[in-house]
Amino acid sequence: xxxxxxxxxxxxxxxxxFSFAQFQTTGKIKEVPENGFHEIVLSPEIRSYSKHDLxxxxxxxxxxxxIPYFIQSNSEALLNTFEEYTIVSKTVFPKKSTxxxxxxxxxxxxxxxxxxxxxxxxxxxxxxxxxxxQTQWFGISNSQTLDDLNSSSEASVIKTISYPLSTYxxxxxxFDDRKTLPINILKVGNFDTQLQKxxxxxxxxxxxxxxxxxxxxxxxxxxxxxxxxxxxxxxxxISRPTYYKRNVIIYKKVQQQTKHKxxxxxxEIVSFELNSNTKNSFIIxxxxxxxxxxxxxxxxxxxxxxxxxxFSQKPVSVIVDLNANEKYIIRTGNKILNEPEYDLxxxxxxxxxKLPQTNIYEIxxxxxxxxxxxxxxxxxxxxxxxxCILLGGITILYFTASLVKDLKEKN
Length: 411
Fold this sequence. Notes:
Mean pLDDT: 83
Strand order of the largest sheet: 9-8-11-6-5-12-7-10
């Protein structure tokens, strides 16, 4: 009887608390064709139903195992591209040296080369010379050393060698093979690092209603989304008049309890100026709101003819290691979760370059925030929570009393 009573107690407590801690949003991750790290750009919909800092996002495989990831902001990213150079010739002089001649692309001032080298447990001395005709060679660098040519995880290593700035059309690397066998140079070239700006993601509001407040000489635009959205940029398309200069304030309505009375007031979020001499696209401090207002001061001018107001957010991605043709799901919307602690976060700098992308589809809401706000289920009401707590307390007392009674009878 005692084990059965304890099990019943744990089951009841679990069911009591289950509804208060669960994910509200789920989505499927499109299967990938090959193993490895992938980038998943989070859609505005996923971000709107997550916590502002995205700390409640979790990824699971079909076995229910949690898959580590890290968040990457994509407003600006360093993109490393490898440009491979032609190896014109490779000449081996047994037990003496190996000479490799590389053609450098035209108008390429260079002072370094990246070599892909097959794993080797050796140390190599080398020298570099340059030429414009492959006949007459001039010294560039002498008595340099290559070491640590062995990787435990890959079949090759990448070594970048530096030398004085050069404009030669051809470079020659002479490796000293007198003490060790030749090393296998797989390819030669250079990494080009560029700062790439990603396109912002447009966020479409559920409602953007414009009202002319004639008596106040103002234009008001009421912006409403289905759920709180992150906004980083606002752009206005204005067709008339030809010249204008108007002050703009973005604000939200805030309620505050004052002396047993609920008062509503306007709280400014950001302000700027619309001007016919500018593009009228504004990077603003990050907004995370479901509803706000845009107020345009017209003074004694006619209202602006606004063709469109566009809202955008900086893209954010999840970087995760996925297996080919395996199914994964993403869950979010559990407001009690904190940021996960994965080992992967300490190795962000090891995962560079442009990663293959996949996406999230079939995003579903378990509980609609709108319905939750307007009409809560009985189990979400405050009285139900307190009833569960009361019943849990009574149940604990009952089982405790029963166990004590059983112990006394046994003794």
